[in-house]
Write a structure and sequence with these properties.
By secondary structure, this protein is α/β, with parallel strands linked by helices. 29% of the residues lie in helices and 28% in strands. The protein has two domains: 281 residues, 3-Layer(aba) Sandwich (Aminopeptidase); 129 residues, Aminopeptidase i, Domain 2 (Roll), CATH 2.30.250. It binds cobalt (II) ion.
């Protein structure tokens, strides 16, 4: 298989994007930085908006960010072109009082965030990233924090004490066997104070000023291209930073579109989206309401606009795995590097319907990229996405798509180099629709 230099360049850009986004808050900040560099202005939710025709803007709410380019035609006539993805990934999150001493070891207690493959966290060089709130003159401020060097570890139990690990799989008791090892506890060490000092040093702030945090456990190993032709990309958080990167790239490339183009990247998808910043929250409806109000649209006009809109929910798809043929429906094997996947589920776990699937096929044809169609095995329960949630709230035509992925929710997932370039092209076509 020949992989173009252009596709490899896109994949390397994706690796850099993921490397700069070790947490949802970092991802939102990175997107903001890239948008700003291309002339997008930041809007504050607590200020009145004065939007200019053809203007380019973004808004951040927690670990979510929505960016948009106002179309040059009236929204009532064109509707919106909306692409959604999620900034969060399943994994481990530190508890508020994480640090403790246990039989001479300093350990950090964690909660399981969403549905990670826990075994993939064992024996890896783990870091920490997220946001920390520190005291500041007149109150406090939220700062981003990341440890890039290996800081913690979840060492496996030797096979001599876990003789059936290869037959029964690697299992962890979530409360007692997942705490991460941070160091050796010296005589009389106060674990919590020790950990707070570690954060304070990194933030260059007094330890007493470190108040609270939300910290995710990260993989410190950078992404890589692999395979005989470097046709695959391996990294953490491909689900769903690959879709965020593709959607953002499409938005940044769109010139002066006729229809208003929106790129909505949400936090909290992996835990059900039900939060202020999540896809089930008010963020996207608030934003559309404000755009409509700014354009002087009444309720009738806003509803006409929604009825003429199209939403693409971009998340990753389950690539066919040749070692596990029984896990897949034989008629719906989606292959790595064979193009974007349209995901359908009769029980509406995906938002795709016949109309929206056909519309996405037309976009792929226009972009000159292949497409594939996926349905889960009938005897397995299917995952879901932000697609049905957003479609239900906005009453909008909607399709669920994604690039094929191996090892979804592992700390090190794999996808296709060509697929990423294809997805950027297909989403680009949606914004020039
Ligand atoms: Co996902």
């Amino acid at each position: 298989m020949s992989i173009s230099a252009q596709a490899k360049l896109r994949a390397r850009e994706l690796i850099d994007f993921i490397d700069a986004s070790p947490s949802p808050w970092h991802a939102a900040a990175l997107c903001a930085q890239r948008l700003q560099a291309q002339g997008f202005g930041q809007l504050a939710e607590d200020q009145r908006w004065q939007l200019q025709a053809g203007g380019r803007y973004y808004v951040i709410r927690g670990g979510s960010i929505i960016a948009f380019v106002l179309g040059c035609e009236p929204m009532e006539r064109t509707g919106l072109r909306l692409i959604g993805a999620h900034t969060d990934s399943p994994g481990l999150r530190l508890k508020p009082k994480a640090a403790h001493e246990s039989c001479g070891a300093l350990r950090l207690g964690v909660e399981v965030y969403g549905g990670p493959i826990l075994a993939s966290f064992a024996d890896r060089d783990l870091g920490l990233a997220g946001r920390v709130v520190v005291r500041a003159p007149g109150g406090f401020e939220t700062r981003l924090l990341r440890f890039d060097a290996p800081l913690m570890r979840l060492p496996n139990l030797a096979i001599h004490m876990n003789r059936e690990v290869n037959e029964k799989g690697l299992k962890f008791d979530k409360q007692t066997e997942l705490p991460l090892i941070l160091g050796i506890a010296g005589e009389g060490v106060d674990a919590e104070a020790h950990f707070r000092r570690l954060l304070a040093e990194k933030l260059d702030a007094p330890a007493a000023d470190v108040l609270t945090w939300e910290l995710a456990v990260t993989d410190t190993q950078k992404g890589s291209l692999w395979g005989a032709e470097e046709e695959f990309v391996a990294d953490s958080q491909l689900d769903n930073l690959a879709s965020c990167h593709a959607a953002l790239s499409a938005l940044l490339a769109c010139g002066s579109p006729a229809a208003t183009c929106v790129c909505a990247l949400f936090d909290h998808e992996e835990v059900g989206s039900e939060s202020a910043a999540g896809a089930a929250g008010s963020f996207v409806t608030d934003l559309i309401g404000r755009i409509a109000a700014n354009a002087g649209m009444d309720e009738e006009a806003r509803r006409c606009a929604l009825a003429r809109s199209f939403f693409i929910s971009a998340d990753m798809a389950h690539a066919y795995h040749p070692n596990f043929p029984a896990a897949f429906d034989p008629g719906h094997k989606v292959m790595v590097n064979a193009g974007p996947v349209i995901k359908s589920n009769a029980n509406q776990r995906y938002s795709t319907d016949a109309d929206s699937a056909a519309r996405f096929i037309a976009l792929c044809e226009r972009a000159g990229v292949p497409f594939q169609q996926y349905a889960h095995r009938t005897d397995l329960s299917c995952g879901s996405t932000i697609g049905p949630i957003v479609a239900a709230r906005l009453g909008m035509a909607s399709v669920d798509v994604g690039s094929p992925l191996w090892a979804m929710h592992s700390l090190r997932e794999s996808a296709g180099v060509l697929d990423h370039a294809h997805m950027i092209a297909a989403l680009g076509a949606a914004f020039s629709d």
